[in-house]
């Protein structure tokens, strides 16, 4: 989380500093309209910088994943940038359009100004001739983009509709890029700020075209088929085993992949619940019935059905040098730990870390718990199963009582976000260096 906050603030502060270096006169603006001229430009630059990086992250690039802590963290940054871009765009719209309304209502008096000077270059003359069209495009596309961003933030908006409508933001971005290129003060383009903005808009436009062509991460997609399905009725969980004859690069325990079984529904992310064995190229997903799509899977999926898999992604891979680890899997959050236990059982490392796995669940299925216990025994891991109605809720005190050496441990958490944040704060209050030792998957892709 710290790195994505740094990335967000860096993306805001760098263009702000470069803009202030160009326009220090903003602090001596002597009228509302003079200040408006400066802030229309500044708010537009911040909005386009945020939206450009958000569009680039939509490609799921590999290069920032490790520094940001995984694709789940990248998607959180993508979301924050979308919100930042929306807020900056609203401010930009208020300075531009709100002022025109205020003049029309008689609240402000527009100062008299002479004709615009004739530009020296053909490019600037062309941009000037497009100003009116670019302003109109920007205004109407802003309304559409704002609606699409708000819909993306509404959790109740169905994923299958979100999957279709969110792609339209790529069209909106291209229109806003045209708006920005034409209406940004022409003198900016020869400055460091202009060069950075040109690079961001060019990269963002290329990303938007890739999104519209549905070519995102195509080089990381492979085809497989469903080899086996098993349903656990007491916990409403479906286990699907996918045979991948070729192309899968392998994965580390704890990573996830996007799976597409219905092109109309789109790709959904699932944690991989199995270790990778090249001699038997299969991966397993364990899916909880939590929404419309996952509730339909038991009826829609069939053995032999083709499935497209993309990945692997994520940095929740249990890599550290701590002598002890504490794993906490809340509900369906147990899946990465199943994969890690299978990996440990198969690889039999010479020096094992001391590991305690806490699985807390509201529902109980004897078969699922029996399989979990077998995996833990094979991996040499101490398993603690807590059923909420029978054992009460898990908290930091219970973990510390059962793991006296917790101060030497790292904590790996996968489960409900609120539970993870509470546990993180609890251990921080007791002196654990949570920035380095508390690892949590932010498994929310919208």
UniProtKB/TrEMBL annotation:
Residues 209-319 form the FAD-binding FR-type domain. The chain crosses the membrane at residues 39-59, 80-96, 140-157, 169-189, 195-213. The keyword Transcription does not apply. Its cofactor is FAD. One of its GO terms (cellular component) is membrane. CDD domains: FNR_like_3 (cd06198). It is found in: Membrane. Keywords: 2Fe-2S, FAD, Flavoprotein, Iron, Iron-sulfur, Membrane, Metal-binding, Oxidoreductase, Transmembrane, Transmembrane helix. Coiled coil: none annotated. It comes from the Bacteria. It is a multi-pass membrane protein. Pfam families: FAD_binding_8 (PF08022), Ferric_reduct (PF01794). InterPro entries: FAD-bd_8, FAD-bd_FR_type, Fe3_Rdtase_TM_dom, FNR_nucleotide-bd, MRET, Riboflavin_synthase-like_b-brl. GO terms for molecular function: 2 iron, 2 sulfur cluster binding; flavin adenine dinucleotide binding; metal ion binding; oxidoreductase activity. This is Ferric reductase. The lineage of its organism: Bacteria, Pseudomonadati, Pseudomonadota, Alphaproteobacteria, Rhodospirillales.
């Amino acid at each position: 989380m710290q790195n994505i906050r740094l990335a967000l603030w860096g993306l805001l502060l760098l263009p702000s500093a470069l803009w202030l270096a160009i326009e220090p006169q903003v602090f001596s603006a002597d009228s509302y309209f003079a200040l408006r001229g400066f802030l229309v430009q500044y708010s537009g630059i911040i909005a386009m910088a945020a939206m450009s990086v958000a569009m680039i992250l939509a490609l799921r690039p590999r290069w920032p994943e490790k520094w940001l802590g995984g694709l789940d963290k990248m998607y959180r940054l993508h979301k924050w940038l979308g919100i930042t871009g929306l807020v900056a765009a609203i401010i930009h719209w208020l300075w531009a359009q709100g002022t025109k309304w205020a003049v029309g209502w008689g609240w402000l008096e527009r100062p008299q100004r002479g004709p615009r000077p004739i530009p020296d270059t053909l490019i600037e003359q062309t941009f000037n001739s497009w100003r009116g069209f670019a302003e109109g495009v920007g205004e109407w596309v802003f309304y559409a983009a704002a609606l699409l961003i708000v819909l993306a933030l509404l959790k109740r908006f169905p994923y299958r509709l979100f999957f279709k409508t969110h792609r339209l933001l790529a069209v909106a971005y291209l229109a806003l890029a045209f708006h920005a290129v034409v209406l940004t003060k022409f003198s900016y383009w020869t400055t460091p700020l202009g060069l950075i903005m040109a690079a961001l808009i060019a990269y963002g436009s290329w990303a938007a075209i890739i999104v519209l062509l549905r070519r995102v991460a195509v080089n990381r997609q492979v085809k497989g088929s469903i080899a086996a399905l098993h349903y656990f009725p007491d916990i409403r969980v479906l286990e699907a085993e996918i045979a991948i004859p070729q192309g899968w690069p392998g994965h580390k325990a704890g990573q996830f992949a996007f799976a597409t079984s219905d092109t109309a529904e789109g790709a959904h992310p699932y944690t991989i619940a199995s270790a990778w064995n090249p001699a038997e190229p299969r991966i397993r997903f364990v899916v909880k019935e939590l929404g419309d799509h996952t509730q339909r899977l038991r009826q829609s999926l069939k053995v032999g059905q083709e499935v497209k898999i993309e990945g692997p992604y994520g940095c929740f891979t249990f890599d550290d040098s701590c002598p002890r680890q504490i794993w906490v899997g809340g509900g369906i959050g147990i899946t990465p730990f199943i994969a890690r236990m299978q990996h440990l059982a198969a690889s039999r490392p010479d020096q094992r870390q001391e590991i305690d796995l806490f699985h807390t669940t509201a529902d109980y299925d004897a078969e699922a718990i029996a399989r979990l216990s077998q995996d833990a025994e094979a991996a040499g891991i101490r398993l603690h199963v807590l059923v909420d109605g029978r054992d009460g809720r898990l908290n930091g005190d219970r973990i510390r009582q059962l793991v006296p050496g917790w101060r030497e441990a790292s904590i790996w958490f996968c489960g409900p976000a609120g539970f993870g944040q509470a546990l993180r704060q609890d251990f921080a209050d007791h002196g654990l260096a949570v920035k380095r030792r508390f690892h949590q998957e932010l498994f929310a892709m919208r």
